[in-house]
Amino acid sequence: MHIRTGWRAWAVVAALGLSAVTPLGAAHAAQDASPGDIVSAEPSAFHPLPGQPTGTKAWKVHYRSTTATGAPTTVSGTVIVPQDGRAGPRPLITYAVGTVGVADRCAPSANFPEGTGLEANLIQRLTLRGWAVAVTDYEGLGTPGDHTYTVGRSAGQAMLDAARAAIRLPEAGLGEDSPVGIMGYSQGGQASSWAAELHGSYAPELDVRGTATGGVPGDLMKVADFNDGSYGSGLIFMAAIGQDAAFPELRLDSYLNPLGRSLVGALRNSCVADGAVLGSFKTIDSMTTRDPLDQPDWQQRLRASRVGTVKPDAPVYLYHALADELIPYGVGKQVRADWCARGADVEWHTVPLGEHVSGVITQSPLATQWLADRFQGKPTRGNC
Fold first, then answer.
1. What is the pTM of this model?
2. pLDDT 10s digits, 160-182
3. Residues 6+ apart with CB under 8 A from 215
4. N or C: which end of the chain has fewer CB within 10 A?
5. How far is 96 from 118, CA to CA, in rounded Å?
């Protein structure tokens, strides 16, 4: 069941005066505020590497969002704005990172100030263009409760609400007329794809110009089957934690044997690098008394996170590596087929060389330029 930006190559990716908003009580805000309203904000910092200057200001925000079952919740994230003297609205990217882990210490907002955020150098490409960026931590990552890892609706709503929060943060200098782009890869590809599908129904006031999304785990059942017993198998168990967090009636613990309970307990306190090692080459059968993926309730919840069931109402740049070793190429290709069948404006790209992580490294500049073209109103080149 998923989605990782592989810990091996993320090491390559990593190598590549502020005022605070008065905080509200989180529980009060979650109940009484609207999605995207700010619960609290405080000064932060954005560094791709430790101490590296970026010419930006950053704020850690807590904002109101919505769970997969429609309940109010509070999610954290980071708003980053270039300090380039630009006046008036600037483009805003709402950005979703690939898998970082499920422990709170793995949240992007905890790592940006330290220069240890796994995709910070990719995000810097956006700020160097003068774009503001809102990066969600996702539900339950850095906030109470387990991270709802791989739950598509939760992630998509958190992305759209991060954009709303950035626009509503007075210090950011954005406005309702700020053009918005959606961007993400791997776990972030699921989130950004869901955000693209939900925009029209959940956040239609956002001026979304397009979505750049890649390595999309569009069918979690197929991704789980592909990774079972492989070096990416830890992602299956992390995803089980995430689904169980969103839908406690799934009762994950009731399926785990002692080895499975030990592994899941360790993964709850792990980030992607150590979690990948802990979970590698484990089979579902060896960790459970019976396979939850054989059960109708688990199958129903996983199907509910499928990508491709709704036409995005703005253009999409969609890409997938042919030799992706974590999310099968056929899964990404099916997302394209489903969106195209619904009449979406999709520009599809196969990445012919490389694997999962190199896919985002090589495609990030092209995806960024595609978003720049959308902000400039240039015609799309859909290839359904």
1. 0.91
2. 999 999 999 999 999 999 999 99
3. 5, 98, 185, 186, 189, 319, 320, 321, 324, 326, 327, 332, 356, 359, 360
4. C
5. 12
